[in-house]
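Table S2 (continued). Query chain:
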Amino acid sequence: MKLAILVLEDEPEVRMALERDLEEFARTVRIEPAGDVADAREVMAEVAADGDLLAVVLADHRLPGETGVDLLVEVAKDPATRHVATVLVTGQADQQDTIRAVNEAGLDHYVAKPWDPDDLRSIIRRLLTEVVERHGLDPLPHLPALDQVRAMELVRVRPD
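Corresponding output:
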């Protein structure tokens, strides 16, 4: 089973930049792009059908049709995806959108555009580690993508 990160962004150049900045995770984590909420739902179904675990959703707010916050709220309310860490990556969410993302979607992190690639990778590493810990997964197969210090603590305390 692989962990998966969903990158929901309608602008191809921005989506490709996010994917490029997350490339170092690609050896052990699926990086799945989506251009709108309907596409994101299809990707989520694919990940589940493959037996992989959706771990993080990075979502832009302003999208054609439904917003990224709409999807994050949906993810938070669905028992099948409630474990997923959520990140709003946007330069255009107003205060009400952000409040809704925090209150209704339990937003894990807010990243303003333009983002710092090293900060983004650090955030993703921390969130992947939290998902592995919450699920009680063996951290070893995912180790290159995790916070190394925290992952080694998880390995030490893991029952045989």
